[in-house]
Design brief:
Low-confidence stretches: none
Shape: globular
Mean pLDDT: 89
Bound molecules: zinc ion
Largest sheet: 5 strands, antiparallel
Strand content: 25-35%
Number of helices: 1
Structural class: mainly beta
Helix content: under 10%
Distance between the termini: 54 Å
Length: 159
């Protein structure tokens, strides 16, 4: 019989990285790639600069849509921006040790979160103000708006 390679026994909680590194807000967002600014997203970015999170909401089915588009992603209906509290749950995440773009301070946590107001939406973000070992899929996070007076980006921190 041939040797069978078996996976090593997992001796730690597989959902926990044993890494106590504190991930803070970046000291700067200067140099980071700028998201595109089509007309549909203008109000989203302006809201962030004003210190609020707002998503487009359908005037017909009342569901939220994100990223900003010209019509409701659920029914095609017309959209209006509405301020939301922005709370979300972590869908998935990863620790990034390499600078995958200009202006990125390593290490950082890249994540996809699901807004509580519309859990089927997926929002790409960075998790901040937490230890790597404390991040869990499903944990509740709240918005942290980084505003450097020229533009604002939406990050999330544990609630
Ligand atoms: Zn709709």
């Amino acid at each position: 019989m041939t040797d069978v390679t078996r996976p090593r026994e997992i001796s730690v909680d597989p959902y926990r990285l044993e890494d106590d590194t504190w991930i803070d807000l970046p000291s700067s967002i200067e140099g980071r790639s700028r998201p595109g600014a089509p007309q549909e997203s203008e109000q989203f970015w302006q809201s962030l600069r004003d210190g609020e999170v707002s998503f487009q909401r359908c005037t017909e089915c009342r569901r939220y849509t994100h990223y900003p588009v010209g019509g409701c992603q659920w029914c095609g209906g017309p959209l209006r921006y509405e301020v939301v509290d922005g709370r979300a749950t972590v869908n998935t995440w990863t620790l990034c040790l390499l600078e995958f773009g200009p202006g990125m301070e390593t290490p950082y946590l890249a994540a996809i979160v699901n807004p509580v107001c519309e859990p089927e939406l997926q929002l790409m973000t960075n998790l901040v103000r937490c230890r790597v070992s404390d991040v869990r899929i499903g944990m509740t996070v709240k918005p942290v708006i980084f505003n450097d007076d020229q533009r604002a980006l939406l990050f999330y921190e544990p609630e």
